[in-house]
Amino acid sequence: MSVSLTRVYRGSEVESVHRGSIAVVDARGTLIAFAGNPSLRSCLRSAAKPFQAIPLLEYGGVDEYDLIRRKSR
User: pTM for the whole thing?
Assistant: First the structure.
């Protein structure tokens, strides 16, 4: 069962409610915390984007495309 995770407000009115399930595990896969159903299986979809960025980082994309904004001194 999913639970309400967040509400988006427009002024004082609730514009939308986002429901879902979240599971937090440690490096060994031990469940540390959860909201909703920690056993729920779902498709990665947009959640895969951080993993898709790994090759960019590993193969020098940050420097190649100047992705980190450096502070001027």
Answer: 0.53
